[in-house]
Here is the input.
Amino acid sequence: MSTMPYSTKQEHIAMPSEKHESNRSAKAFRTKKDARRYWIILISLIALGLTASYGLLVYNNPVPVSSPSFIPVVMRRVDALIAMLIAAVCHSLATVSFQSVTNNRIITPSLLGFEALYSVIQTGTIFFFGAGALINFVGIGSYLFQVVLMVCMSLILYGWLLSGKYGDLQLMLLVGIIIGTGLSSVSTFMRKLLAPSEFDLLQARLLGSVNNADSSYFPIVIPIILVIAILLFFFARKLNVLSLGRDVATTFGMNYQASIIYILVLVAVLMSISTSLIGPLTFYGFLVATLSYQAAPTYDHRYIFPMALALAFGILTSAYFLMYHVFDSQAVVSVIIELFGGIIFLIVVLRKRSL
Amino acid sequence: MIKLTEVQKQYTEKVKIGPLNIEIPKAGFTSLIGPNGAGKSTTLMMIGRLLSIDEGQIAVAHMDIGSSKSKDLAKIITILRQENHFVTRLSVRQLVGFGRFPYSDGRLTLEDEAIISKYIDFLDLTELENRYLDELSGGQRQRAYVAMVLCQETEYVLLDEPLNNLDIARSVQMMEHLRAAAKEFGRTIVTVMHDINFAAKYSDRICAMKDGQIAAYGTVEEIMDPEILTSIFETKIEVIEGPYGPIAIY
Here is the structure.
């Protein structure tokens, strides 16, 4: 390339090539090999997720298949599985979208203080109103209250820092991190003053677990998530442009400010729904997003989203399966995800030497 | 035609740009020159609607930058900045393909693919088209970005220091490409340039800026004047007649 003599360049300039070979294409995958690899990984992950789900539903069922109580046991397990699916959808879509609009692949929406706010609400309830209040702080009303509070907080943050004279995404992230850290310090302080029995009760709420999920919320939560997921998939081509940065997106005629706020609101709703339903899963979304960029050799969100979803569901279901049936423990799955996920993450990043 | 009327941008009491009044005619190559901090890039960004203006009006092809729809403007004017955030797992061809976004909304037709091929070949990127951007040198990446904005097929193309990161041979090639684009495709190209001699050799017109004001604007012969250049750059500059036109010696 670099040794090409100058004279040939001039000829080249005089005759720009008009011909177009059909094998040249700017589609989502560079080569057929990349595309094949993508589909193989995606199908394997879906298979893994389905196998683990099937295992979670029927493996080690204490009653035999012929017994009339077999189905009720499975139904109880279905609830946990639906909660896993909700967590998978929320964290994968929210983290990928968030990283694309912020042009930053080492942060997650958890940074904006959703989890800190959740922990302040829970801790505050027990701190000010006692253990009884925390036990009674369930039900659709209090659930929606938490979701609305979290979405409002993020709307104020975006509205204040993304429009008007500030108009700076990095500043918003920084303020979000500071608010998040401040809120967690407040809840840490309150926790220090709790009685050990109250603390124990609280601790169960503050570790993310699908067993926290109450199936009576599903009829509200599932339609909302479905709508947001569809909106994000429809926005995927525009997300591709947004990931090129503010200047390039503006040059291509996108309303950058409005698009960013639109995506951030969707992310805020997803994160709030998942955090209030299941509890904080700080590392999960980040892990899923990072692994899906490695597994999907493309920039195109229409392909990154399904990969992230399949990965998220596969990781969560296999982590639960491992925990219940291999380690035979009822511990909290976020521990497993962070342990194994962290190891896999380090292996992938160190082997590829890039994010 | 790009027309600036009483355009002002105020940062602080002392740091302000304008009022600027200038008309850049359609077709041809215009270079903005001037010392650091003269407001060249700011002016370019205001024309390219990346930076809002405080007062005045900017019209490109009789469309007001402030009030026209961004989507419509994207088919008329494009701007490339010096530094671009680049995405991993994005190949040269896919990047250039983004240039078709204002027309296709991301759904590339066969016609779009043919246009993409045309500009990739035009900028000698054919062999690199399937490389990811992070596998390229700075200069190759620069050419890929230029191919992207040319692929947008806009009448007006604004480039902020397109020769950044390029060695002498690549700079010459880039300027040849840009001048060819201006000539063959009838584009109006406006660039910010640091090298006066590059600007003199390839431009049709030069606009010199100093302290947020337009100090001089005219043809290459008019601006390549030792007195004008010396006062703009506050350095002793001589101009001699070279084989390809005037050359500044400093």
Observations:
- Chain A has a mean pLDDT of 83.
- The two ends of chain A are 28 Å apart (CA to CA).
- The domain at 48-68+80-352 of chain A is CATH 1.10.3470.10 (ABC transporter involved in vitamin B12 uptake, BtuC).
